UniProtKB/TrEMBL annotation, chains A, B, C, D:
One of its GO terms (biological process) is L-arginine biosynthetic process. It comes from the Bacteria. This is N-acetyl-gamma-glutamyl-phosphate reductase. It catalyses: N-acetyl-L-glutamate 5-semialdehyde + phosphate + NADP(+) = N-acetyl-L-glutamyl 5-phosphate + NADPH + H(+). The gene is argC. Residues 2-138 form the Semialdehyde dehydrogenase NAD-binding domain. Belongs to the NAGSA dehydrogenase family. Type 1 subfamily. It is an enzyme of class 1 (oxidoreductase). The active site is at 146. GO terms for cellular component: cytoplasm. Its EC number is 1.2.1.38. Its main location: cytoplasm. GO terms for molecular function: N-acetyl-gamma-glutamyl-phosphate reductase activity; NAD binding; NADP+ binding.
Length: 341, 341, 341, 341
């Protein structure tokens, strides 16, 4: 089949393009520039890809005609406007931006400072947390955010199984600069980021509402989370160090069994008790590695999950949703080489 | 006065040497190698210092004769053996290692896997948390560990004022490689550390017992802490991101007032509500910058403190203790230039 | 076919393993540990590869029986001893180490400080500079060194076409730490390499003799080269900045034509006049990008070539030689994704 | 005395401020914003300095009234306009920008793409290469550029003593990002600079004309230089790797004697035969370390010099010129601590 991709010039767009190009079930990847009126050579904007492809002008009619699905790897706010014809036509969309992840328009507006899509569209969209939900018949997949993916995968076993005090959840998340956007600004100037740690949007990161929304689906009693984000002097990767207070009666066995039950069949998520992952071990891959441990004295549980923010946190998970949507096996097109050494 | 320094070749030793050299009240810094039998040229082992000094053979008699105080910047286990003559003679010692920080020999042995000094010596030693304790008449100052300093300064206002549930304390600490030791090993190989985050000694770091010891002095009810240490791809700095659940009746005002009361007179510690420090802003200085915030929904408090691990976390605090010991003003010899930009 | 690989635990060995695993014409990669007597789980030594394979004990009889070719990614000095049975049997070997690259035993001993293989073996070995030489009937391929690859690809057009004063060649080469060896030492300690540039083995690097050997094949008059190597604070990549004085009569056209003639048909080498490559643009790929320019005032030519030292400088070029040996098309198994962004 | 400083917010301006503040002969540093109409708190724009100073509105009358000298650490193009009243009044100026370094207006315009100052002003300005020239009676000091300083110090002994073929000079220079400007742009985005080397302005860097101008003063026969600049993934430091062909009759002794003669009395420049410096060993100091070696086979000389681009390459050399201008000893205010470890 042919697939369309809008937004190849962004970080996750370029990574997604490379995955789609090599996907066994994809014949051709058609590129479209969402703000483009004329065709542009991909090699001009992304010479690193050494591609002879063109980025075609944006045309929803052409997109639906020449492809069986379209991926949007655009900035927040773009699909709110552009998705409508596809939704109306029931044409499959996998959207890497945040526009359709939240069910509540007010919450979206509060966090993204933009107008949200129509409620009926939000209701139809499927939150694509691929390790937990098959796409089934959904036509609009809202691919989760990177921080959200790392955090939800870490917390799922504990929250689903009601093992912790839900008001004690702390997430200390750390990300490389490829999660901070392509546009040069003061914070990501090399001189500012190098040899430095910079907190930003403490308790304000726009991934918080989708994390809370999903946690509340698993356990209504989750009021909120403490969420700290720190920018690291490295390019790729997210580490979410999560902490939660176990309920008094919960034992190490309960914790272990929860992680085993949740992830033993999962292709991409690996959870190990007492062994904590390094960030680099997942970079270049679609894996999420998790280490967890119940502290016998304080009865707190530490859960550390690592992902490649552009793969498991974006393009890789998009491919998982694509495979689910079209009934390919979960690991199709995702047998990736880690970045060695 | 003249001062003696044992251990100039270690990271904190070399930084301490540079501070002592420039201290207005120090005439001469005499260097001694704790395992040396003959004099050695400092320029041979540390050419970076461009010094013509010699490292003299170790001789406690000579040390006490030619100096008014001796600093030890040696590895854990050295002062346990070498400090005895000085303690017996009541000769002033400032010890940057962990040997004399703990009051309990069993605790020391459990965490450091080495024999501890004699109990009577431990009882006499002064835990040199300089922003809280003057040295007064104490002759043996045990300079706190770097992680311990960052953590204690962050938590002090909340613990001293009993504002939090003491079993909810979480410390997510991150350090540069200059805190991880000079000896090449697999973990600190550039290829391993670069572009990576590595957790180590989770809940096992040897700074934990001194942190708990001090917290328990402030509030007996502190049972333990959850303490995670992560190695960062940068050279200098420690960030301790701390979390604790406020007691139900505690308000933002209570939190703010605690920090203001604790630090308003402090030369080196700056705490600001809602403004979180970057790591780099303290590197090269003896400052500890702290940002804190009470989360209105979860009622958790996040406190982020940053220090330069070799200065505030070691050599700088040693100078603070030196100033206290000899009644110099607190900032003497500590007007340091940050590493710009 | 099945292939054997000895030395998977080294940096280039692990990268080579990943390439062979995905090579369309390779059914199975059999791993052997050159110093191993019993089988070992690959996951124990290289968990990053998430592999269920075993590293089998070393046995040349088993190797020749179960494979059609064997790759050695061992340290210098190993194949000098181990290659004999394969050479005697005429069994195909692709050797990533330096043992068989030089034709002169004295030169080898002088540079590597080790005994060289027998002269008759050296004579039979094929220097696998893949963009210039097909393997044809050769059975023993000595894969060039990484610095040598970058340098020879940069200089070939000028030397083959006798465009420069051969005593004016200057190579200022810069490499990431993955080229400096896995064993932790003082130089590659993160604290030493970070924020630093370190020259090493100036005019003494063991790649110099093979560079000179090859240049002299193209032009006898090359006496030697000035070769500076600098260690960079990054993991992967080599940049060779080369300079040579053009002969008085040589023009820009001559230079341009030489590069075009040499590389227009080459799959992997791209040379552009006046456009200089960044290091990162080739990392993760088997490409060598070159920028060159004749300085109209000084009549010097600057040529900057970049490669991924573990791919084009080692494993990737080994696959090129493998493809040549078995008549696969040049790019088979080498359609690699750059490390984005 | 009091000194004025215009441009404290730039990288070299902030470093210069820290040096002036601690200079034994400076009572007060008055700050002025060249484009400011009202006073501004320094802490607002540079909180890292933790200063209570103000940046006063720009007023040349006030500047000359309240200070004995004014330093300009502004961008190129500013002093061309603002310096006039000071030059007319013969008021001492030390200018860190490039506006007054070149004697030829055409050359300046060609390289900086801006209008140059008047010829009579250019004639009066003193090129402040402090290790070679005392300021004497000059009132306007044009502080050399960072790349220029590293390069001229490396080449001086060879050029002054006419030991090399002047048309063979190659400079392969590498700089950290603090030399590339504070304004965020694509090149210095962390994601672009990290793990990368980027050549820029090859043979076009605006420091080239001042390097050539100075070399030609030492030896008219210098036609030009080959000058390559590479941006490194680190913050501070410049390494200039220089190469030149020795004249046929020149020996190792000639080269060694030239370096010894040139630098044996120099406080800040250290040249060693056969020992090459690392970049970091000078960072935080005003030293320039040089390693050199004559290659016996190719008869080329390699000279590697390293400086801290913001100190020896800017603010530190400005203090040297200040000391010279006011007859303070050369090292006054320049006893700086290296950045350890």
């Amino acid at each position: 089949m042919n697939v369309g991709l809008v937004g190849v010039t962004g970080y996750s767009g370029s990574v997604l393009y490379e995955l789609l190009r090599r996907h066994p079930n994809v014949d051709q990847v058609n590129l479209y520039g969402h703000a483009q009126k004329v065709a542009q050579s991909l090699n001009e904007v992304l010479p690193q890809l050494r591609s002879r492809s063109s980025i075609l002008p944006y045309d929803p009619v052409e997109i639906t005609k020449n492809n069986q699905v379209v991926f949007f790897a655009t900035s927040a706010g773009v699909t709110t406007n552009l998705a409508t014809p596809f939704i109306e036509a029931g044409f499959p969309v996998i959207d890497l931006a945040g526009d359709f992840r939240l069910k509540s328009r007010e919450t979206y507006k509060k966090w993204y400072k933009k107008s949200a899509p129509k409620t009926e569209y939000l209701e139809k969209s499927h939150y694509g947390l691929a390790d937990f939900y098959e796409v089934n018949d959904a036509k609009y997949v809202a691919n989760p955010g990177c921080y959200a993916t790392a955090t939800l995968l870490a917390l799922a076993p504990l929250i689903q199984n009601h093992l912790v005090d839900t008001s004690s959840i702390v997430v200390d998340a750390k990300s490389g600069t490829s999660g901070a956007g392509k546009k040069p600004n003061e914070m990501t100037h090399f001189t500012k980021t190098n040899e430095n740690l910079q907190l930003y949007k403490v308790n304000q990161h726009q991934h918080i509402p989708e994390i809370v929304q999903q946690l509340q689906i698993w356990d209504k009693s989750v009021p909120y989370i403490q969420f700290t984000t720190t920018l690291l002097p490295l390019t790729r990767g997210i580490m979410a160090s999560c902490y939660a207070k176990a309920k008094p009666e919960i034992t190490e066995d309960d914790v272990r069994n929860a992680f085993i039950r949740t992830y033993s069949d999962d292709t991409f998520v690996n959870a190990t008790e007492g062994v904590f992952p390094t960030l680099k071990q997942v970079v270049g891959t679609n894996f999420c590695d998790i280490g967890y441990q119940l502290n016998p004295v304080t009865h707190q549980i530490v859960i550390v999950s690592v992902i490649d923010n552009l793969l498991k946190g974006a393009a890789g998970q998009a491919i998982q949703n694509f495979n689910s949507m079209f009934n390919y096996t979960p690991e199709t097109g995702l047998d990736l080489t880690p970045v060695l050494p």
